[in-house]
Amino acid sequence: MSKYAVTNPATGEVENEFPDATDDQIRQAVDRASAAFDQWSTTDPAHRSSLLSRVADLYQERTEDLARIITREMGKPHSQAVAELEIVISIYRYYAEHGQDFLADEPLESPDGGRAVLRNDPYGVLLGIMPWNFPYYQVARFAAPNLMLGNTVILKHARLCPESSAAMEQIFLDAGVIEGAFVNVYASNSQVAEIIIPDSRVQGISLTGSERAGSAVAATAGQHLKKVVLELGGNDPFLVLDREILPTAVKGAVQGRMANAGQACNAAKRIIVLDELYDEFFGQLKEAIGELELADPQDPDTFIGPMSSAQAAEDLHEQVQDAVDRGATLHLGGAPSERGPAWYQPTLLTDITPQMRAYGEELFGPVAMVYRVKDEEEAVRLANDSPYGLSASINATDIHHAEEVGAQISTGMVFINEPAGTAAELPFGGVKRSGVGRELGKYGMEEFVNKRLVKVAG
Asked: Which residues are catalytic?
């Protein structure tokens, strides 16, 4: 069976299969991306901008068809698939509108009275290794800024997403982007490690995925002196600090943990509540999660559908079962659904201890873990007791105080009175084992760029 296949998680049926690329096809893909770079990198930035704008138009025109693809590929509810595409469109429009400004030369002070300028030149051919949980969004935040820069990109998408990756390549071709500027390949991990990364024409690698995948790719890239941007896992804390904020916090916790069936790196995975608020908050949260119903992801009213695959649900259940076996309290869910092997019940756990896998590992699914702490000092200490550092949410009526608490937590992003999110204008990334580098905003165009100094004698 092909490694690249559309296996509808809602039904378990294999709906389409795609042949793996041969080694020769992989080499030819690099050839095309390299040849395209010679032309694309010298194209007028205004022209690149206009083409990205056309890409955004095509995403908008094809939203319904594109949404249906990922609902079938990885089970995303239709309304959330459409919302993902709205963000994607905004990303391409953002770089189309602002990319030329980000590329502007930066004058520098010259110590000898001469003239110096820093130019933002293209970097080269880039490899993007992308995950299945946000099939279009993850690619957009890598491809849009780098194509605007004049780089060309090779996409190695998750094996669950062969149709969406092909659809994206077709959008670029239909928009008029030169052939080879965006190349989709159905590559294996060994082909990535043995053919693509070692190729001297490939200058950088961007990976969004698991900590294990990031470590492996970074090691291979390091052997070949290639730059990497890594957006990896998260075990993000969600702090609740006062009673007045409870309605907002409960709503944010449910949305932040359960959207996309909990399959988000920046989901609110560890909900940390002060002792004096705990009982009231927990009662409201349990009621809200208990009202969630698993439903057909094609239904526009569905909030939670299946997980991406039966294997993902099985892996999650092993983590949950380990916690329960070691003394965690299971309040809701905690088992696969009768609907099928990829369906997992919304789950609520408490009494998590460091001896459990759930304490330090990322739970990538609809499982909320709630911690009771005696005070803010303990809340911050618990929030930081993680190998990850992607984002944190601080919920408090005193905004200034919430910012002070957030400043004590080691993450790349802090959100006040809202669950972690994303926008084209805002940089995205973490610290510690959550990765290196930033995507989106102007910073998304500052990773794979040749900051070329030009100095003229005085």
From this structure: 231, 265
